[in-house]
């Protein structure tokens, strides 16, 4: 079978693109460690949130020397707690859920950009190497007050941290 030269070029080009696309996704997942939305945090019925050990009292708690776990509820139109404090150099694992509609949980300037789905607990881990105030925004349209939905993570310099939250 005789394939025209230009057609062969297009076929080769398309093959290269397919390999590149698969390559970038594999690279992102394996080398960079980009995580897809997963159910790794587990599930929770929205009406069980007030009775749940993790979410009845949204908070951040220390679980290791420089390790913290944060339990956050994203709801119309706020984050509970609105502000979290951790010391510089800490690793924080966020568990976020929603009792009402779809929300976002993006910690500006970090790798955390999560979709918060009612019925599911979304999990992401962030290392806060530098002190400062990190904004938290909802980036999924969730209703009339969507644009007001914000919070912050205050990463306190070690010299000013006395263990208190
Ligand atoms: Cu919550 Cu937008």
Helix and strand sequence:
HEEEEEEEEEE
Number of DSSP helical runs: 1
Rg calculated over all Cα atoms: 21 Å
CATH class of the largest domain: Mainly Beta
Features:
single chain; 165 residues; alpha+beta; Immunoglobulin-like; five-stranded mixed beta sheet; 17% helix; 35% strand
Explained architecture:
The protein is an alpha+beta fold and 165 residues long. It folds into two domains: 34 residues; 115 residues, Cupredoxins -  blue copper proteins (Immunoglobulin-like), CATH 2.60.40. Helix content is 17%, strand content 35%. The protein is built from one helix and ten strands. The strands form two sheets. Strands 1, 2, 3, 5 and 8 form a five-stranded mixed β-sheet that branches. A five-stranded mixed β-sheet has the order 4-10-9-6-7, with no helix packed on it. A hairpin with a 2-residue loop joins strand 2 and strand 3. It is elongated. It starts with a helix and ends in a 9-residue tail after the last strand. The mean pLDDT is 91. The structure holds dinuclear copper ion. The site of dinuclear copper ion has 8 residues, from loops.
